[in-house]
User: Which sequence fits this backbone?
């Protein structure tokens, strides 16, 4: 589980964890090479931003603390 703070993927999508169970995602479909049907999840237990899609199969990207 990620602690409170700001996180970013290598492609530039961002995640803000306000408190456990409360987060905000800004998902960059183009840079993450996802299609517009993808649905982003805040993050998984391994620290990845995850997106699901029936069209393209979805994907995931490692989150790292924002500087």
Assistant:
């Amino acid at each position: 589980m990620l602690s409170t703070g700001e996180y970013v993927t290598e492609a530039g999508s961002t995640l803000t964890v306000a408190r456990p169970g409360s987060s905000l995602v800004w998902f960059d479909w183009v840079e993450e090479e996802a299609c517009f049907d993808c649905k982003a999840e805040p993050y998984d237990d391994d620290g990845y931003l995850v997106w699901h899609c029936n069209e393209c199969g979805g994907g995931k990207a490692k989150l790292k603390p924002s500087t």
